[in-house]
Amino acid sequence: MSRSDDSIGGPVGDHVAALTPYARSLGIAVDRYEDGVPVITVPFASGVEGRPGHFHGGATSGVLETAGYAALRCALTERGVQPQLKPINITVQFLAAAKNETVFAMARINKLGRRNANLTVEAWQSDRSRPVATAVMNILMV
Amino acid sequence: MRFRASGDDWVELELPWREDLLGEADRHVLASGPIISLMDMASGLCIWTCKQKFEAIATLDLRVDYQRPARERAAVIGRAECYKLTRSAAFVRGVAHDGDPDDPVANIAGVFMSINAEARRVPQ
Lengths: 142, 124
Known about the structure:
Helix content of chain A is about 25%, strand content about 35%.
């Protein structure tokens, strides 16, 4: 878990604490912030392994989803609101096998309305220009 | 995760309720991530059941529509059905429910691709 870079971004510690029990069980942490958007990281471990030496598709999806919620939480915190977030749907595209290396994920908020948000999330490993998976999420805010 | 049942073209798995898979710390409701894992796994198994052989497959696209949160402390059952199989692609649909299949937690649709030996020999 990287917590050494608290100074460069937002309150990393607070957001690590805010990660869901599920995210923590996957070994997910906030790596850093880029323009106020959290970059989520998860090291390769047996808990995320599917096919030997590769990430399980479900684990990759969990990382994408967590990055989506984290980005939305940050944006909402900036607006001074804390609604409950409910998933509407997620579509994950798997582009390449995620190997036994650390996975990073970062979301882009395409629409932030009053009731719903639409996000695009990208996950990559050593080469950021070659994402291993992308996702589109719709989230309801109540 | 455990196996429950299977047929010619479908497989049913069960994900028992677990404290460390919660979506929110203060509510005893399963996160949505494990449901994707459950359905991805059930989808793969139903494709192998349908093909009647084990062959490496890759998930191309998996869509999950969440209808409602799972009940507190409830196990989630994932049923996936392979409704179309071509030489290179497999199409899957399924539901995740917590007891009543007519009142699902989520609906899913996925597309998988076979990674067969011939395809691998094609130069990149």
